[in-house]
Structures are given as C-alpha cells and as structure tokens.
Specification:
Layout (H helix, E strand, L loop, with lengths): L1 E4 L1 H8 L5 H13 L3 E5 H14 L4 H6 L3 E4 L3 H9 L6 H15 L7 E5 L3 H9 L3 E3 L5
Parallel strand pairs: 1-2, 1-4, 2-3, 4-5
C-alpha cells in the first residue's frame, strides 16, 4: 500500500509540533510493515518555502523527506485535480489529484489507500473521495 503524506503532516516534523512524536511513530509503522510513503513534488516545494519563512535549515527537508517517494505534477495530475468537485484550495487539490491518480491507476500494494494530513478540509474531501484519513496525535 502507498500512504500519501501532505505538507501539513511533514511540516509538523520540521516545526517540532506537539503532534510530531505520534506522527513519526505512525510513519515508522508504515515503513516497518513494508508500505511506502508517497507525495507530490509539491511537498518538496512547500517545505522548502516553509524553511525560508521560518528560517529553518533546508537540510532538514532532505532528512524529513528521505523515505518519501515523489511523483511529478504530470498533466494527468492536473486533470485529476481539476476534476475534484468539492471546494478545495488549489495546492490541496494537486495533492489529492496526485493521490487519486495513484489510487485509480494502481492496484494492491501500489495503490494509495491512506492520506496523512492535518488540514481539516483536505481530510474531509479525502474521506469523501474514499481514502482513509489519518492525523496521528490530533485530539
């Protein structure tokens, strides 16, 4: 199975948010069971910009993303994002468009089934689209 991670999740690790331990435990469990973490190239861009805004070391982005496989923002991703009918911010639509493409075009271990996000609206839409949504440590 593929587990899609968005910026609201991995940004918590960079910012040492209170949810960080629970999130890191969840991501470690995903990897230990042989599943893979995946995201859009958008994640790398958003985390780099977060480092600039918060004066963080960009090397930390590489560390946080070392186990994440990235997918480009392909024309198919753009079309998938545009086809989402629910109200959603543009960058979140790209994240979910990527997850949808990987869910629709893959089978079994290569399909995205879970989305890790702390963005409330993105989580709601992801659930409506059929994904399991996980926000470790959120109360």
């Amino acid at each position: 199975m593929l587990v899609y991670v968005d910026t609201s999740a991995l940004g918590r690790i960079l910012l040492n948010h209170a949810d960080r331990p629970a999130l890191e435990d969840h991501l470690d469990e995903v990897l230990e069971r042989g599943d893979r973490l995946i995201s859009s190239d958008l994640l790398d861009i958003e985390l780099a910009r977060l480092c600039v805004r918060m004066d963080l070391d960009p090397v930390d982005v590489e560390r946080v993303c070392e186990d994440v496989h990235f997918m480009g923002i392909l024309p198919e991703v753009v079309e998938s994002a545009k086809d989402i009918k629910q109200t959603l911010k543009s960058l979140d639509a790209i994240h979910l468009g990527t997850a949808l493409l990987l869910a629709d075009e893959a089978e079994g271990e290569e399909a995205v089934e879970q989305v890790v996000t702390y963005d409330k609206r993105m989580g709601q839409v992801a659930e409506e689209l059929g994904f399991e949504v996980v926000s470790p440590g959120r109360r």
